[in-house]
């Protein structure tokens, strides 16, 4: 189902995006155009209005009492929240269901029960509305999230994906053309933040709480190791850093000043490690745009350090706005819209994956190796 834009009568597709990979329920509508004949995908003012509406429900209050995400509780809350959020974004965009031309949903990686709730609703809506549906890779959606901004980076670029479940350095040549350069061999950096926060007695979610406490810390009191930076390569390891925190705390009183100093030392070590590996990757690939996505991308210390790195290397750093660093429906709607506009869609079968390596993705036939021009919300 398509509508047209007044400028040039290009075919438009409004895509409903649904995100339920973990503990956030996200829904959004993104409008995109596909220019017939040259395989170019166009978004924003040149061929569509970009992001029309989005809504997000966080389950933090539900999981805080347990100190972490409980998968069954996450799935049940997605069931409660999804349809009201779909109605909310349709109303915010002032659109009837008949104006939706496609449905995108997170198919993995993530919690399998949570993924299935979003996938089942998405497939049902697509069937009822008689429109195509597409399952989206969660990390592909994250690395494309900066394309939601007014000045998106152009392909090719280097991407640093940092979240509770992933730490990846990826060379991005185009939509679906990804080469993993480095990844964590154990804990993801976001997971290390959360586990260290728990050791420090901080509330859930731990990463932001640790960053706030670190602002009070003395940077000179402790210096923690920068894991795997004394050897070549772009892989990461953060479990040893977490163990170093535990050993340090076992020998000291846990007053607030000490905990703040430990938090600062941990954050400095984690940030330095990420920056060192990004520097290596920029130099190895020769790429200048660096995209940073995922929840840890909102960390202010990391942003300041990467800004300094970009100045030193003549590079540019691109982020999604803070609300799109964490899981959200807007990034899923965008990723799905790009693939649907390139002609990709799926059958009626529902397939979700708890694990799904990013570099197993392939570009849709006819997809151009360029970012959408002028994307904006």
Question: What's this entry about, in short?
Answer:
Helix content is 37%, strand content 20%. The chain contains ten helices and twelve strands. The chain has helices spanning 60-64, 71-92, 112-129, 138-144, 189-199, 206-214, 239-250, 256-285, 300-313, 329-341, and strands spanning 3-4, 11-19, 24-34, 41-43, 50-58, 102-108, 133-137, 157-162, 167-174, 177-183, 289-293, 316-318.
Helix proportion: 25-40%
Mean pLDDT figure: 89
CATH homologous superfamily heading of the largest domain: ATPase, nucleotide binding domain
Architecture of the largest domain in CATH?
2-Layer Sandwich
Radius of gyration: 21 Å
**Uncertain segments of ≥5 residues (pLDDT<50)?**
1-10, 35-47, 370-377
Give the biggest sheet: 7 strands, mixed
- CATH fold-level assignment of the largest domain: Nucleotidyltransferase, domain 5
Write down how many β-strands occur, each being a DSSP E stretch of 2 or more residues. 12
Strand content: 15-25%
Shape: globular
**Straight-line distance between termini:** 22 Å
